Amino acid sequence: MKIDLAKHCIFKQNNMLIHIHPDNPQPRLIRQAVESLLQGGIIIYPTDTVYGLGCDILQQKAVERICRIKKTDPKKAQLSFVCSDLSNLSDYAKPLSNPVYRLLKEHLPGPYTFILPASKMVPKLMQSKKDTIGLRVPDNRIAQAIIKELGRPILSASLPGEMVEDYTDPEVMHQNFMNEVDYVIDGGIGGMVPSTVIDCTGEEPLVIREGLGEWNY
Questions:
Q1: Rounded to 5, what percent of the chain is helix, strand, coil?
Q2: Which of 60, 69, 137, 186 could be joined to 170 by an S-S link, Cβ 3.0–4.6 Å?
């Protein structure tokens, strides 16, 4: 039997694009994405703001792969810990003051990234020079389902791209990154505005990037 290699390659590439329902994520497809993460894979997945590059925080080589895609040094990359809630906070951040913890409780899940002092459990590869981490709890059911199935946070970074379609259209992302990531999760057209970033390592919270999340403090 003669195999049409061209069709076979297209079939394999299309398998990288997983269509997951944004409101009712299919458990089988969520498990498929998580199995890839556990094996050191990288996924492109939706959040409540823009699509992101994600990997298992325990897979150092996957972290390095994301940094190569971003063309940046791991310690200079803007990487975030994406969690399903605040239950893992004490594992990755140093103890927080009551006002800062209330701030996080009030705004998460939501389109915010909080810069926090990193705990000793955070691998040095994933810390900035200031020993901080970015914390995200996105209000997105697909992202939440993946994190809960994985059982720990995802390490995440924004997608590189010059055109809007590069980071909003899953079909375009698939074409752009089919040789660099393991799966592109299609949860619909993504947003164009990133999260609002608040630095909570000083005496007062400081907005260092204005994004989708409103900030009136």
A1: 35, 20, 45
A2: 186
Residue 56's Cβ-count burial label (10 Å; 0-12, 13-18, 19+) is buried
Q: How confident is the model at residue 123 (pLDDT cuts 50, 70, 90)?
A: low
The verdict on residue 107 lying in a domain is yes
What average pLDDT does range 167-192 have in this prediction? 95
Q: Is residue 214 part of a domain?
A: no
pLDDT at res. 8: 31
pLDDT at 107 over 70: yes
Partnered with residue 113 across adjacent β-strands are 136, 197
Report the percent of the chain where pLDDT is more than 70: 89
Give a yes or no: residue 137 inside a domain: yes
Residue with tokens 């996080």: 104
- Domain membership of residue 4 (yes or no) is no
Q: Phi, psi (5° rounding) for residue 14?
A: -65, -25
Q: Residue 126 — φ and ψ, nearest 5°?
A: -95, 0
CATH number at residue 45: 3.90.870.10
Burial class from Cβ neighbours inside 10 Å (0-12, 13-18, 19+) for residue 114 reads: buried
- pLDDT for the residue numbered 130: 63
| Tokens 């694009």 sit on residue | 17
User: Which of 184, 205, 213, 215 lies closest to 16 in space, CA to CA?
Assistant: 184
Report whether 114 contacts 96 (CB < 8 A).
Answer: no
